[in-house]
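ARCHIVE CARD
SHELF: 3
SLOT: left
DATA:
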Amino acid sequence: MESTTPLLGLRGCVIDAPEYGKLRAWRDGAVIIGDGRIVEVGSFQFLGRKHRPQPIHWQQSDRAIIFPGLIDIHTHLPQYPVVARGRGQLLEWLHQHIFPRERNFTGKIGAREGAAFFSELTRNGTTTAAIYTAIYEDSCDLAFEAAAQSGMRIIMGQTMMDVGTYGTLQPRKVLSVALLESERLCRKWHGEADGLLEYAFSPRFALACSERLMRSAAEMALEFGCHIQTHLSENREEVERVRHLFSKSLDYTDVYEKAGLLGPQTILGHCIHLSQRERCVLAETGASVAHCPTANLYLSSGIMPLGEHLAAGIKVGLGTDVAAGPELNLWQVMRSAIESQKARSFSDPNVIVPSPAEVLHLATQGAAAVLGKGDIIGSFDPGKEADITVMDLAALLPYGGTETKIEDLTPDDLLALCVYRGGPHAVLETFVRGVSLAHVHRDAAHAAHE
């Protein structure tokens, strides 16, 4: 028997990027949603006639630009309050600004800041995020509680460190406690909220982890079917220190490969200074890369060779990476992904600069593939779950559009406006599984005051 529940119809300019470099668009389009999934996408006139006998609740706006929900595959919850702090490079910056901040991310701070962080993500149009917390079990646990209330898709994990850690445990106890706590968090939260929440084992990077910790994290991720997230080859000094510390390994990537950390479930932040051998290893193992250009520029880490990674067959998505990145704004990251490759092209004419359509793919379908969800979210293919971001054209145009002939703007024009001028001021609404996250947040706020 067919459901009598009214369908939801969103009308506007509908845009997605199901393949790298391929833009699909309907200038006066519609997305029809039923039972949390995409029922159909196409022109408004055609779909309106086709579904006329069915009850459809229409949200219509001539200023709406409708995209698949944006996916942030690398960011740090505890660090957000210290954005734009410090001007050193990676290792100095971590010790002077980030570790002191994370040291205080304990207890109820996880709940308070978690709720604000998830709200800020949705304000920026993000519907799915992969997130690191600090080294503490209690704040990570409470952050998961906040994530469950947010309605978002969240992949998150307690940061694991047993070398040079900022915690108060005796060094000989750090490893066993980190493994025990991460396993407890995984057992409690992985697959919760009807599958919207997932756990990620999160060894920080090779300089902060013993070989035993890395091997154990890899084994637990395999046992529980979880993601692994870590950092690789972000900064030249970091790479050189890893070379000395792990002198029996071929290179930084070899350290992770020997520990069993590389596989289709692995998200590697940055990967700026890789050799061709390392690229081949990532492609062969199926490990993916989180490209974080705003963060890389802020810390003078370098510019990731995007085209070379893609040509090697490596899956790539985008990350805001706060607090090195300044905002939880994936439109800003898309813009930086284009502009940073332009900067490379000034000295190397062989560099291919990505288009707005290509960076949109990295923030949607490409990122979904990184997370193993390419057949679930990331585009408007019928049957996929309805994770959607709606942008406001009037907020993107100078003077609110009063001096622009809006009907002459093509879908490519509208996408470029989002990439170059997009941000929270221009986000109209976000949906996960067809549910408006604005409604989720209003309901949660109402319940909190009852």
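SLOT: right
DATA:
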Amino acid sequence: MRCSVVAIGTELLLGQIVDTNSSWLGEQLAAAGIDSLFQVKVGDNLGRIVSTLRSTLEQTDAVIICGGLGPTHDDITREAIAEIMGVELEMNDEVALVIEQMFTARNRRMPENNLRQAMVPRGAKIIEQRRGTAPGLICPVGDKVMYAVPGVPFELYEMFERAILPDLLTRSGEASVIKSRVLRTWGDSESGLNERLVGVICELEKVGNPTLAFLASGWEGIKVRLTAKANTQQDAMKLIDVWDAKVRSEVGDIVFGVDAQTMESVVLDILREKNLTLAVAESVTGGL
């Protein structure tokens, strides 16, 4: 299975936003044994988006499109996909209802342009939105496929893991399941962690499954990723649980979170459990 990633947004070309989505997707595809041949950025221009999608689709089996699914006039990924598929955009009433309910739940008026996010290319499958207002899309083009996901990282991550990766593996004929867990650490360097875990790493090199990788993430600390392959999701998670315990036994309490957890979210979770609140003031001098 050959895959490409297309990140959409003029802000990416101007350097106003760093494209971390493509690097994350490349990492996930590699861990799943899927070849990632291209990573392309393109601005908010319908003609150039269509041209880029056609080019990447000609050379790969699947294209993952990040961004351009929002409610504003420059969110034109849906229109580009519809042109590639040769179909019209249609209002999906179920998606529209979900968007309306999200605004109602927050006691906010819904700007009418939010319903643009419920316009779906005919023949596309919806990836339900669970965190934001824009759904993802699975769009068949002959024997190939385009996936579209929001550019907001945490929305993209969730949709990729829940819907896109399983669909890619099914299309590739890969019967096994690949699962990963990221242990987030603080308090030691990458080389220091490697030294602590040298015994675990040697064991893993002998057994071959799961695998362990380090990712230095600046102020987010060092991430330790365990990736296991098995016949079922349950078996893969059992493997990860075993080696998770071995890693923690070597590094101690410098593991502060798992997967998408951040230091801030962990602290807030602890405060909620203890029914405490937190107030933060940047300055109490009024600039004096």
